[in-house]
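Before we proceed, please read the two lines closing this message. Let me know whether the structure tokens fit the sequence:

…
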Amino acid sequence: MSELTVQTRNKRRKWLAIGLPIFLAVSFLTGIFLGAVTFTLTDLTEALQNQTEANALILINVRLPRLIVAAFAGACLAAAGTILQGVMKNPLADPSIIGVTAGAGLAASIAMVALPQYGFLTPAFAFVGAIIAMLCIYTLSWEKGASPLKIILAGVAINALCGALQSGIMILYSDRVQGILPWLAGGFQGRGWFHVEFVWPYAVVGLILALLAIRPLNLMLLGDHTAKLLGAPVERMRFYLILLAALLAGAAVSVAGLLGFVGLVVPHMIRLLIGSDSRYLLPFSMIGGAALVVFTDSLARTVFDPIELPVGILLACLGAPFFLYLLKRNTIRL
């Protein structure tokens, strides 16, 4: 790495340290002010002063919890993608590709379609499903250790199995499918303080643990052989990091549904600018993921008014072309 490259990356890190929090703040304010009911700054001040007004109820009980849930989901998915890409040393690794999201989707489908009496426990079902899927993947890939390639192959198999079982459930209970379609598309419609109360302990603990895992993640980037020479317990670190990624992904999917491309694209965007050093990549990806999901959710609510487009569809429409652009430019090397 030349001195110029080091200087350039340091400069970009400083700009991102300033720009990403501003982007998050602007996205949050956009979500507060815009929607079916548009707020002005005066309306917002009056609503906060008189919390019994309709505007105050919309702000406090509808928009604010929705934005908080979106921020948590975006930060968790971006952190999970960053961790998995670092552990697997594979640019395609993210929760949706290795099967963790599929496990959450299957469990949520069971709660909403097969066992509707437990529909209120959908977030808990999705969270547990993600953890179980991860444990199955790791168990299937274990043979005197779990190599990244085996984990990805096992994840692809679990992904396919969970998808088949989910399709079977939807066919068997075709009269109830409409209730699960918005969740499968991913979005935050109807999210309230119940969802905030459910997700914040897992999200906060997971994000803090992710920041504490920066050093092990940087060691994993050196390769198994080098990390072992430095005295690192490679297999134990890999297991804990993947479990942490599953915790983060499960927390996000439990309240956001099947959101794609956040954990895949956001780390790439940040990595192209500042490199792979997890000391910067991981926290910047968290902020960037939160800002992206909050901003995209605001667009989904307002641009297509009076129809609310599921944010997962909009993220896929934005994320897929960008990912293909990176692939075409050879910035993603397999």
